[in-house]
Design a protein that fits this description.
This protein is an alpha/beta fold and about 230 residues long. The protein has a single domain, classed as 3-Layer(aba) Sandwich (Rossmann fold). Helix content is about 35%, strand content about 20%. The chain has seven helices and six strands, in the order βααββααβαβαβα. It has a six-stranded mixed sheet with strand order 3-2-1-4-5-6, with helices on both faces. Helix 1 packs antiparallel against helix 3 and helix 1 packs parallel to helix 7. The longest helix has 15 residues. It is globular. InterPro entries: DUF1194 (IPR010607), VWF_A (IPR002035), vWFA_dom_sf (IPR036465).
């Protein structure tokens, strides 16, 4: 039997204390980034730089400025090992060029966490707990997961973690990083596996990056869609 988490308990989200004095933003966004053993040092650098470029892009900042509070809060998690997802950048407010520079600096400076592969369900659980305890309030709470392979070794399957998170009011979107024509062990493109096993919630979607050099473009389009 697979282990159940606190997220699966009825009313777990509703029972969380409400931080009435917490600042309000339009969206709480956790970027769940694949740091598993399939990614070498050069690919990891490209990935980090792609996230930094996307988060500071003028079109993303413009999308944020179009929202009522003109701000979102962003955190970054690296995942891979079963039960080993790690927060590498805690929630930071993103609203303008100055806050974007601070966020980019934190993203680029964070040491790479030690991960094996490939526990997507456990990553979803980790991100859901972060959103539950976030120091900001927002009507929209989103997990944005990127990866180059399917769930393989989670303590709780991705589908179970996904269903619990969605039941708690979260949205999970995905970025499939896969070369054109690549298929998973299920004989389908990675995006289809993520569509079936990972994403969930109202308006959830999958986008594809052809490789890590394409992450900045794909993530930029994905952030604009999520924010605006």
């Amino acid at each position: 039997m697979h282990r159940r988490s606190i997220l699966a308990l009825p009313g777990a989200f509703a029972a969380a204390p409400v931080l009435a004095q917490a600042p309000e933003v339009d969206t709480l966004l956790v970027l769940a980034v694949d740091a598993s053993g399939s990614i070498d040092a050069d690919e990891f650098r490209l990935q980090r730089e792609g996230y930094a470029e996307a988060l500071s892009h003028p079109s993303v900042l413009s999308a944020i400025a179009s929202r009522p509070h003109q701000a979102i809060a962003v955190a970054m998690v690296e995942w891979g090992s079963p039960g080993g997802a790690e927060t590498v950048v805690d929630f930071m407010r993103l609203s303008d060029a100055a806050s974007a520079r601070a966020l980019v600096q934190a993203v680029l400076a964070a040491p790479r966490s030690r991960q094996s592969w490939n526990a997507i369900g456990d990553a979803i659980d980790h991100c859901a707990r972060m959103l539950l305890a976030a120091p900001f309030r927002a009507a929209e709470r989103v997990i944005d997961l990127s990866g180059d392979g399917p769930d393989l070794r989670s303590l709780r399957p991705a589908t179970t973690a996904r269903d619990d998170a969605v039941a708690g009011g979260l949205q999970i979107n995905a970025l499939a990083v896969a070369a054109a024509g690549q298929v998973t062990r299920y004989g389908e493109p990675l995006a289809e596996t993520y569509r079936r096993e990972v994403i969930g919630g109202r308006g959830a979607f999958v986008m594809t990056a052809e490789d890590r050099r394409d992450i900045a473009r794909a993530l930029r389009a994905k952030l604009i869609r999520e924010i605006a």
